[in-house]
Each structure stands twice: as structure tokens, then as C-alpha cells.
Amino acid sequence: MKRIKTLRFRFALWVALLVLGALIAFGVFVYFSLARDLAAAIDDSLRLSATQAIAAINYEDGRINFTDSLPENSPAASLRARDLTIRILSTKGILIGGFGNYRDVPIPPETISLPQRDESLFATFADASNNNSIRLYSAPIIEEGQRVGIIQVAKSLASVQETLNQLLRALLFGGVALIALAAGGGYFLAARALAPIDQMTRTARNISAQNLSARLNLPTTDDEVGRLAATLDLMLERLDDSLQRERRFVADASHDLRTPLAAMQAILDVTRDQPRNTQEYEHALDDLEFETKRLNILTEHLLQLARSDGHASVVSEPVDISLLLSDVCESLRMLAQAKDLTLACNVAPELVVNGDSDELVRLFVNLVENAIKYTERGGVTVNAHSDGKTVRILVQDTGRGIPRQDLPHIFDRFYRADASRSTGGAGLGLAIACKIAQTHGGEIQARSVEGKSSTFTVLLPRAPGS
Ligand code: ADP
Predict the structure, then answer these.
(1) 135 CB under 6 A from ligand 1?
(2) Could you tell me if 301 and 337 lie in one domain?
(3) pTM above 0.85?
(4) Do 362 and 246 belong together in one domain?
(5) Which residue has its alpha carbon closest to ligand 1 atom 16?
(6) What secondary structure letter does DSSP report for 122?
(7) 430 within ligand 1 shell (Cβ under 6 A)
(8) Is residue 185 part of a domain?
(9) Domain identity same for 250 and 386
(10) Centre of ligand 1 from the C-alpha of residue 427, in Å
(11) Gap from CA of 410 to ligand 1 centroid (Å)
């Protein structure tokens, strides 16, 4: 039952049914065409024989003289050799003469009552001695415009029947062989074509949410199955990739959440250990505040990432980037001044993009905050201008720069170039900024000269018509 449900079995069945249908149509056409042609040929030969026989008849003194032994040299002599029966009847249907196997078979009455003077007819009737049919041609013998008798030419249809039976046998045996061949061939071809799908099913069974490392790895072919296998492999790779990233993210997140909590616990333990003076308590509270801020920023960042991963719908409204950047610079000016850094904002007016202004503020605050955080001397410059259909925003600083080997990774989640982690960040700011740029149809590029400067370039599509 299981086998019957397989695609290859159904394919073989369909092929066999199609061949059967075609064979039946072909067989019926050939059989009946041949039967009709053979019947027409027999009728033609009977009519011709009758004409030849009439030519051999002597009509003298009102009497028909049809010699039983036709003269050797007469054209009608060959009639005997054709396995024909020829008989001559009077106009009343009385047998006058003739020869052949069916000379004496009863005369069917309809074959002698020919209503018209020169009317002829064909009749088929059963041979009483065996199962064969006899074809009989009946025509008037006309002399001097008068019907003087009737000639009947008959022939057994056994040979015709035998030819048709042979054809039927050939069609039956040939048909059965052909159907078996087609079904077998169909099964074999379907099995060959579907073998990779079986392999896919086996591999797919071994794939679980915990283990996405299995691949189909089928030989690359440019057919439907090959393309399906390649697409599934690509899909598995993407799923595996995102699963790995998810795991790393959860591990890093729990690690980074534990660090400030452990620090807070340690501060509390040490402070409680013995009685402290007011200054020491204040110091402990400051430390606790620092760790709480870290925890706050971290949970806020995690929340933002989780939200953007969940593909929460992005608000899309025209946002004046020129105004937005000026606001961001103003709000962070104090931060820069606290480190004795300059913060310049050279922004072309009326640069508009479509997007979510809160998200875009988050993006640029992250970049400018980083620039201030990682710069000890000099300053930070924010430039923005339009580049045709693109708005190009550059955040440059004169800080420590980013080591060459870290540059490709700084947009990864939890990646931090300074291993000491003295700056208190969690390594999520740039990942969030990158995600925001992407959801706005843009991108971020980073360049740096180590020890000298860093430049982050944000490219955003300009709002149409702005
Ligand atoms: P963090 O919270 O550590 O700042 P980010 O994702 O914002 O995390 O940045 C990732 C890393 O990239 C940082 O740890 C830092 O080493 C490096 N980085 C980012 N911006 C700058 C910059 N303007 N100058 C130098 N290094 C930077």
C-alpha cells in the first residue's frame, strides 16, 4: 500500500495508462481501416471477376451458354484459379451453370429479385459448413438491352478474417509488451529523477532545531531538483548561521548582565563587611550608581535589538536629517565639553529622508557618543550633504582609532575592540546603529587610521521629491 502511494509508482501508472489509451486508439483505427480496405478490395475483385465472367458468356438463341471449362486462352480462364465461385442463374433464379465451392449453396432470394434492370448488389451470409462468412456479388446479365440471367460471384471471407485476427493478436501482444515496457521505463526514470528527493527526506529527518549543521550536499545539477537542493542548503546555512548568532548573543548577553550584577554584589558585600564612614558609604553608592547605569544601558540596548530583530513595523515619515543632526549635536555638546573636546556640526540644510526619527536619533547619538567616548584630544565633526539620491552623513573624530583587525567586527553584537572594557560599553551600540541604517534602506561604513582618527559614514536614501 505504501509503495502504491509513491510518486514513482503513480508516474509509472500514468505512463502505462497513457500508452494504453494511445494503443487502443491506434489499434481501433488500424483494425477498422484494414477491415474496410480489405472489404473494399474483395468487393472490387468480385465485381471485376463478374465482368470478366460475363464477357466469357455465349448467348445464342435466347440461351446462356457458360462453359464449365473456360477455354485455356480466354481471359476468364484465370477465374478458376482465384478460389472463386461463379454461378449463372436464369432470371427466375434457377441455376444454369457455374463452378466453385459455393456453387450449390442456397440462393438468397434477395440476390435474384433485383428490382432494376441493371442493378447489382453485394450480400454477406454465413457459410453453413463452417463459421466463415461468404461475400456474394449478384449482377444481371444484359443482352441486347434485356436481362437474360443473373451472375453471382462468391468468395469466402476466411482469409480476410484471418488477416484481421493476426493483426488483433499482434496488437494485443505488442500492446501488452509496450505497456509493460512503458510502465517499467516510467518507474525507472521516476526513481532516478526522484532519488535526490529521497536523500533530501533522509537528511531532513536528521535536522532538528538543535542541529542545523547537516547539509544535503547533492551534486550540483542545473535541473529543478538540483536547484531545490541548492536552495535548501542555502536556507539551512542561513538558519544555522542565525541559530549560532542567537546562541552567541544569549551567552554574551547573560555574561554581560552578570558582570555588573556581580560587581554590585561585591560592592554590597565589602561595604557591609564592617562599619564605614560617610565618605566610604558615598563612594560605595557612586560605584553602585555606575553599575546600575551600565545595567540600564545594557538592558535598553538588548531591548532595542530584540525589537528590531522581531521586525517591528518601522515608522516611515519624512525626517529632516539636518535639523535632527543639529539637535543630536546640541544634546551631546556638554558631554564633549566635559572632555575638553570640540564638537562641530557642518550640515547642509533640508536633507530629508523617510524613516523613524526616534530610531535615527538613536543611530546618530550612538555614533557621536562613541566618537566622544573614544577621543581624548581634539574633537568630533559631524558633516552631512546630499549625494544625488543619497544623504551622506560623516561622523569623524581625532581619537584613538580602531585597530585594522577589529574593523571588520565592530558592527558585530558584543564586539569591543578595547579588551580592557574600561569604557563601560557593552559592544551593542554599533550593532544597533547598523540595524537601524539597514531598516532605513541604508548602510554604515567605518574607516580609521589607528591612533589618529575614525570616520563613520552613514548612507541613507534621500526622500523622493525632497
Ligand atoms: P561600545 O558599547 O563598546 O562602545 P559599540 O558597538 O558602540 O560598543 O562599539 C564597538 C567597539 O568599536 C567599541 O568597543 C570600540 O572599541 C570601537 N569603536 C566604536 N566607535 C569608535 C570610535 N569612534 N573610535 C574608536 N573605536 C571605536
Answers:
(1) no
(2) no
(3) no
(4) no
(5) 417
(6) E
(7) yes
(8) no
(9) no
(10) 7
(11) 7
- Please give the number of the atom of ligand 1 that sits closest to the Cα of 430: 6
Cβ–Cβ < 8 Å for 135, 154: yes
Q: Please report, for the domain that includes residue 443, its CATH number.
A: 3.30.565.10
What is the pairing mode between strands 453-461 and 390-397? Answer: antiparallel
Instruction: Determine which helix (DSSP H) or strand (DSSP E) holds 150, and give its type and residue range.
Output: strand 146-156
Task: Tell me, using a 6 A CB cutoff, whether residue 355 lines ligand 1.
Answer: no
> Phi and psi dihedrals of 400, rounded to 5?
-75, -15
- Among residues 287, 308, 329, the one where a domain terminates is 308
Q: Is the CB of 397 under 6 A from ligand 1?
A: yes
State whether the beta carbon of 399 lies less than 6 angstroms from ligand 1.
yes
* Residue 245 is assigned to a structural domain of this protein: yes
**Parallel/antiparallel/unpaired status of strands 342-347 and 379-387:** parallel
Rg (CA), the chain: 53
Tell me the pLDDT of the chain (466 aa) as tens digits: 566 678 888 999 999 999 999 999 999 999 999 999 999 999 999 999 898 888 877 777 767 776 654 555 665 567 766 778 888 888 888 888 888 888 888 887 777 776 566 678 888 888 777 778 899 999 988 888 888 888 999 998 988 999 999 999 999 999 999 999 999 999 999 888 888 888 888 888 877 766 777 787 777 778 888 888 888 889 988 988 888 878 877 887 887 788 889 999 999 999 999 988 999 999 999 999 999 998 898 888 888 777 777 655 567 899 999 999 999 999 999 999 999 999 999 999 999 999 999 889 989 999 999 999 999 999 999 999 998 899 999 999 999 999 999 999 999 888 877 655 555 667 888 988 998 999 899 999 999 999 999 999 999 999 987 7
Structural domain of 233: 224-308
Residue 82 C-alpha to ligand 1 middle, in angstroms? 112
Which numbered atom of ligand 1 lies nearest the CA of 371?
23
Residue type for position 12: A
